[in-house]
Design brief:
With 118 residues, this protein is mainly alpha-helical. It has 2 domains: 38 residues; 59 residues. The chain has 4 helices and no strands. Helix 3 packs antiparallel against helix 4. The N and C termini lie far apart (62 Å).
Length: 118
């Protein structure tokens, strides 16, 4: 059997002017940073670029998700308590539930607003 190596044509387009401009800008920034901080390693710079490419806001997103799940849990417990105590009259400690739910709603709103601000 005869083997003929075939190199598939490159399907990617050449970089646009914007792509080249951003690449040149990043190169200049990295060079300036290396001059200002000679102890920085290549691994740290690569990690910083990966973090920048992801958008950075991972911590805020996790915090918002945690607060939303907390709010869902508190509301679930509150609804369960309402259904269990609902027929007995008194309301049995629902003031605390309402305060915790309001507090969590405020925290979620603050976290969302903070994650959207630059």
């Amino acid at each position: 059997m005869i083997f003929v190596p075939v190199v598939p044509p490159s399907s990617s387009q050449p970089p646009s002017t914007h792509t080249r401009e951003v690449a040149n800008l990043l190169t200049r920034v990295l060079e300036e940073y290396r001059k200002a901080h000679p102890s920085v390693s290549d691994a740290e710079l690569r990690a910083a670029l990966r973090l920048a490419a992801r958008g950075g806001g991972g911590r805020e997103k996790r915090m918002v998700a945690f607060l939303v799940w907390g709010l869902v849990a508190v509301l679930g417990v509150g609804i369960f308590t309402l259904t269990m105590v609902g027929g007995e009259g008194g309301g049995g400690g629902m003031e605390g539930f309402v305060l915790v739910a309001v507090f969590l709603v405020v925290l979620v709103v603050v976290a969302v607003l903070k994650s959207r601000s630059p």
